[in-house]
Amino acid sequence: MAEQDIKTIYEQTLAKMTDLTDRQKAVLRAALKLFAAQGFEATTTAQIAAEAGVASGSVYKHFNNKQGLLMAVLSPLFQGTLMTVADEFIDENFNDEYLSVEQFIKAIVTDRLYFISNNFQELKLLFGQVLANEAFKSELIEFLKNQLNKSAIVEIKRMQTAGIMVDLPIDIIFQLLFGMAIGYFGKLIAGINLRSIDEEIELVNTLLIRALKK
């Protein structure tokens, strides 16, 4: 399992954006770091400027206002970074034939729960805005639907045909698999952290194997 780090992939996304100056990229990088760590409302443009090593006035010069800066941060985060993360997840976890339901579930659960744990602050910022922005939300849903249709459904149907996975509707299987990850993310947001990430993964694996193994 390749460990995915949103900050690293975001940096790679910014590097490809030739329409931005180095100073603008520094501001976006600093804004992402502070928005994720402190929250949007608690972060001031003066803090962002200091973190980026630029004059305070240059932040508004390039991005008009704080809300405009947030949108400038989120656009490459959503359209570049998140799409790269999703592509890598699909390629790594759904392009091989699994020998057992246990192997399949452990790969998916371990990958996604570690990803959420390691990138929690950035994900909280991103999905808070996705829920508030219909355009981002629609684009994300369409992208994930297309990606899952191409590979995940094929592998699940293969395991059902092979008689190793229960014959539940595909949407229910997705709900079970990804609902666990969403639930874990929700617990972190609520500050409910009752066990280590490894203990969490083991418990989720056990529950899903019982639910999906034929």
Describe this structure in words.
78% of the residues lie in helices and 0% in strands. The two termini are 26 Å apart. The protein has 214 residues and is mainly α. It has 2 domains: 95 residues, Homeodomain-like (Arc Repressor Mutant, subunit A), CATH 1.10.10.60; 117 residues, Tetracycline Repressor, domain 2 (Orthogonal Bundle). It has 11 helices and no strands. It comes from Weissella oryzae (strain DSM 25784 / JCM 18191 / LMG 30913 / SG25). This is Transcriptional regulator. Keywords: DNA-binding. One of its GO terms (biological process) is regulation of DNA-templated transcription. It holds the Pfam family TetR_N.
The residue ranges in which pLDDT falls below 50 over 5 or more consecutive positions are: none
Return the CATH architecture of the largest domain.
Orthogonal Bundle
The major sheet is characterized as: none
> What portion of the residues fall into strands of 2 or more residues?
under 5%
Helix count equals 11
> What is the CATH domain class of the largest domain?
Mainly Alpha
Q: What gross morphology would you assign?
A: elongated
Mean pLDDT: 86
| Order of secondary-structure elements | HHHHHHHHHHH
User: How many domains would you count in the coordinates?
Assistant: 2
Keywords: DNA-binding
Protein name: Transcriptional regulator
Domain HTH tetR-type: 21-81
Organism: Weissella oryzae (strain DSM 25784 / JCM 18191 / LMG 30913 / SG25)
